[in-house]
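hey can u run this one w/ GEK bound, need the structure tokens asap thx
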Amino acid sequence: MTTDKIYEKHTDERPFRFNEEVASVFPDMLRRSIPGYSATIEAIGSLAARYVRSNTHCYDLGCSLGAATIAMRQGIKVPGCRIVAVDTAPAMITRCKAIMAEDDRRFSPPTPVDVIEADIRNIEIANASMVVLNYTLQFLTVDDRDVLIQAIHHGMNDGGLLVLSEKVVDENAEMERLLVDLHHEHKRRNDYSSLEISRKRAALENVLVPETVGAHRRRLTAAGFRHVAVWLRYFNFVSIVAIK
Ligand code: GEK
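ok here u go:
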């Protein structure tokens, strides 16, 4: 795994982009930056085993290198399914296709995967029994989040499951300061320097806009999801499951 040294190298104030440089260190970046990331990937496999129905579609929206796609693929226990993995970043898609080809070659898994370079706001969701938004919705505008969650609900079969993982902000300013501080300490423990942490924070400003857990719950309920629960919280990172 290549080590993420992006904010050790760059001293200018460019905004964060999902380019080749980021894609090349991405597994290391996510592992060291998102507390609970590996727990979300593991749970996505377990949830796929429980909720994916035969002859339906599964979607991994903002798939990056396809970690959640592979977890779903390994979890699915029923025939006739297809996974659609979508990302807008060409550098992610090129690598994701190579990773899926390697997964095909080594394990010949029965569920095919379509890796598509597209904006998740423009794709059609249909006949879905599982949809994953693992740390992706946070990069859309708030209005686009409403539209996408409604489109996902519309394209889902009854009993279908959405996994929504997000960075969040706490309603309480004192708690927010504490959670951000604990997250930065976690990153320092994972060998990011204070300078790298503050540069990354500046680069993500206005690119990743977190909302409260309450705002996410309200949006999901308003879209029509019948059951909504936070199943994981680690500092200011949460993962929510919602069932239609
Ligand atoms: C994982 N889910 O490993 N359309 C398509 N893709 C988008 C869009 C958009 N409008 N906006 C952002 N992306 C992955 C991790 S990373 C999380 C997801 C992070 C893509 C973007 O190109 C990037 O690959 C991904 O969403 C977010 O489980 O970097 O914090």
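The CA atoms of residues 2 and 24 lie 7 Å apart. anyway lmk if its weird
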